[in-house]
Amino acid sequence: MKLVTLIALALVIRASYATLGFDSISTLSTSTFQCLGNNGYSSFIARVASTNGVDNVGVQNIKNAISAGLTDVDAYIAPCPASCVSASNQVQNAINAIQTAGITVGTIWLDIVANPDWSSDISTNRQFINDMITTAQGPMCFSDFEHF
């Protein structure tokens, strides 16, 4: 019985920390973020870098989300492992874009998903991801079972 009570308590505590949020790669105005905030959304994550380099739409969306009052704003990088700049430069370019825009985010995440540019050599991929994490000075990866 104590175990059931403990599990139920843990679920209640976990649920109390949940926030309603979303991610988008489309341009969103400050007024759109205000509307979403008025309807219970407080969390947003924007892509700030991908195979095309820095995503200025994502950087602007972060600015708009913060201006609209969203309280939990993060960024993510969709890595380009083959034909782009180095892993370290991808992270540094994203960080520079965020800093240049004068904004602060909670976390910069790596979006590790299937990509035809990943090497068939697992060690090469692992080193690429480790180089990104080292540059960012901390782990920040997300994926799912299907892509990892």
From TrEMBL:
Keyword Signal appears in the UniProt entry: yes
Domain of life: Eukaryota
InterPro entries, A to Z: GH, GH25_Enzymes
GO BP, one annotated term: signal transduction
Keywords assigned: Signal
Signal peptide: 1-18
Protein name: Uncharacterized protein
Organism, scientific name: Acrobeloides nanus
